[in-house]
Amino acid sequence: MKMSSAPKDLQPHQVFDIDGVPQGASKCFDDDGRLKRTGTFWTASAHIITAVIGSGVLSLAWATAQLGWIAGPAVLFLFSFVTYYTSVLLSSCYRTGDSVTGKRNYTYMDAVRSNLGGAKMKICGLIQYLNLFGVAIGYTIAASISMMAIKRSNCFHESHDKNPCHISSNPYMIMFGIFEIILSQIPDFDQIWWLSIVAAIMSFAYSTIGLGLGVAKVAESGKFRGSLTGISIGTVTQTQKIWRSFQALGNIAFAYSYSIILIEIQDTIKSPPSEKKTMKKATLLSVIVTTLFYMLCGCMGYAAFGDLAPGNLLTGFGFYNPYWLLDIANAAIVIHLVGAYQVYCQPLFAFIEKWAAEKFPDSQFITKEIKIPIPGFKPYNLNLFRLVWRTIFVIITTVISMLMPFFNDVVGILGAFGFWPLTVYFPVEMYIAQKKIPKWSTRWLCLQILSFACLIISIAAAAGSVAGVILDLKVYKPFKTSY
Fold this sequence. Notes:
Amino acid/polyamine transporter I; two-stranded antiparallel sheet; globular; transmembrane helix
């Protein structure tokens, strides 16, 4: 069946054949004329877990230490519930109208445009892509910290603790950037499913090792450290306590941030059953798994270190024996972040390339695909614009990371900046518009109260993280400081 004239968008009222396949679809093409989607519950879960259990898990022991045994786990649970609930609302917006036959929205911005109009779509796009850009910076910093931890660990053991082993993070950021330049040439989001599965496995590996070392340290000392209210006044000043508590909210928000790529993940899922049903199940599984890991890592890290809980859990064990185990955990973090960087950046890459192709449709530089034969594989389609622009993007994120390598503060700012608008506000507003929920009704009021409460949390988290960056910048020298 020839599909060259297939419609690009599904019509609002689709007719199904006896096999349950929409008319206009075929074995090779979906109902919108695009190649058949192959994503499943498991691949969607892998994408989500890769996006969620990222470097954010490493700062949770520190965040729990700022909040204490009562507020720490409570805030973690609260964020997990809000993330799951708003993700379900957002997954309902993948199709406009009917959840089975409605017109597809391929990106988060498409969904906002369909439900809220063009003006809000532009605001959403600006926030979303700035956040993705920031995540790329945060992941570059986190990967370099783990690579440095491996180098310092081996240096200490070779010198029998006589060498201070001061190391610059710059070469490791450059190394990570080179890897990302190569991987960023993978053309489309749906072609990196294998990278997501590898990254998800790695995230479980290092989270489990961090958890295990926390349990071992608690068993060794024979007591749970920490207090009900968190880090005590005296260890820090009262002002620092407030700012750090706010920053902890941003760190936890960052640890749960994946809504910005939810629609893009949903667009890889095959149907039937409807993409919404599959995504809802994948979201539930992923949030339960990640929350369990977060609770364990955050709480056991706090129990092990108390007020001295480190900003990065795995670097806080120092050169704890067996040091090779920490090396494995840090290597797993690097491998995971290599994949997670791509999961987050592919939607940004696709947006810029689509915009460029529409703006300059006659440009050979932008549109021409050069087929490069690869023995034993399909030919690789090289696009010069993709090669140049993605390489420049990775170089810019790497240079900014080298200028401002403050892991906890950057993570807090990213979490605060993206959490309310992308995880809460837009999903809530789109859901209200799609379901035509009457203004001032009980349901409308509950959704608005949720949105307003999350806005206050985001503002507090942003204030705390910015204060942290200002303090760090007072003592930091760009390109020169070693650790």
